[in-house]
Structures are given as structure tokens and as C-alpha cells.
Amino acid sequence: MTSRCPALEHAAGAALCRVEDIPDGGSLTAEMGAQPVVLLRRGQTVWGYVNRCPHFSVTLNAADGAVLTYEAQVLMCAHHSALFRFEDGLCIEGPCQGAALDPQPLRVDAGRVYAADSNLKID
């Protein structure tokens, strides 16, 4: 289950999205600066990773833009079927087993998701 980040202002320090914009157990694609990222959510916990498979440095999403997740536990690269854990981005199955996605530190404040180095909030 994947969504695209809603049209929020993307000025420096602006929220990437609301926690609730990310499907529980699913993913949402967004941009952090010029960097494409995948946001994952389980309950109120949110993780962010660069949208790039370590196998061949291709995006994780399919042609329709979806980044697939399975049972709120792993995301799957649409190109190689590699499976990555939500918690640490580690590939647990597939051609890049043992490699990991590049994490993008996040912070959640008042139900909104920000890049960890962002100090500003929008209300």
C-alpha cells in the first residue's frame, strides 16, 4: 500500500506530511530537498529511507509509483523483489541480502513528520 505525499508546503523546515497521510503498515513517497524518500509507518512510528535499492541503485517503486509493503513488516523492491525491514532497512531476502537502505532521520511533532534536521514547524 503506497501513497504520494499530499501537497504541503515544502519550504525549509516544512512538514513532509502528517503521520496519518502514511497508511498504517504502508508507505508514502516524498521529497526531502531533491532526495526522493520512502516513508514507512507502523502505528505511530515512522521511518524514512532513500528511495533507492542497494542492488542496482534503482528506485524501489513500480512503474505506477507504488512502493509495496507486506504485513506491515517489510517493503519490497519492485525491480528485484528484495525485502527490507521497516525498522532498519536491512534486506532480509533477495539479491542484496545483508545490505540496507540508506536511512533518512525523521522526527514527529504534533502529528507531522519532519526531516530530523528541520527546526521549524508549520501549523
Automatic annotation (TrEMBL):
<feature type="domain" description="Rieske">
    <location>
        <begin position="14"/>
        <end position="115"/>
    </location>
</feature>
<protein>
    <submittedName>
        <fullName>Rieske 2Fe-2S domain-containing protein</fullName>
    </submittedName>
</protein>
<dbReference type="InterPro" id="IPR036922">
    <property type="entry name" value="Rieske_2Fe-2S_sf"/>
</dbReference>
<keyword id="KW-0479">Metal-binding</keyword>
<dbReference type="InterPro" id="IPR017941">
    <property type="entry name" value="Rieske_2Fe-2S"/>
</dbReference>
<keyword id="KW-0001">2Fe-2S</keyword>
<keyword id="KW-0411">Iron-sulfur</keyword>
<keyword id="KW-0408">Iron</keyword>
<dbReference type="Pfam" id="PF00355">
    <property type="entry name" value="Rieske"/>
</dbReference>
